[in-house]
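Field reference: sequence -> structure
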Amino acid sequence: MIHYALKCKDDHRFDSWFQSAKAFDKLKAAGMVACSVCGSTKVDRDLMAPRVAQGGKRDKAPESAPAAPLSAPASPAEQALAELKAHVEKNSDYVGRDFVREARAMHEGEQPQRSIHGEARADEARKLMEDGVSIAPLPFRPSRKTN
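Structure field:
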């Protein structure tokens, strides 16, 4: 595995792991490496310091600079997304794959109105919108679906 510091054309900086340098080049050429902030696929490796093991001993992070946990937001955009996710999950019911049925039933007055979130295929979501059901895609996966 290889760790790269990356930046997009808009100078957003982020990092990611790849199987190898060759794998990074192949994914980049296929347009599959995208900025974690804006989604741009115009991404290049950024300047970074190499990590070199010394004498078989494990590298330790400097005591003065503890590593941030992977679950901590790395940018203001990630912080805003985390806050949005927390708000949605606190103030709505997760209905999973029943989202389309539940949303349609509320729209047609068969069930009382309430805030819900769940999952729908693109064609199902499009049909709901065509039928006048107010829905919006969420920019995150429900907590129940993450590792």
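Note: Residues 2-45 form one domain.
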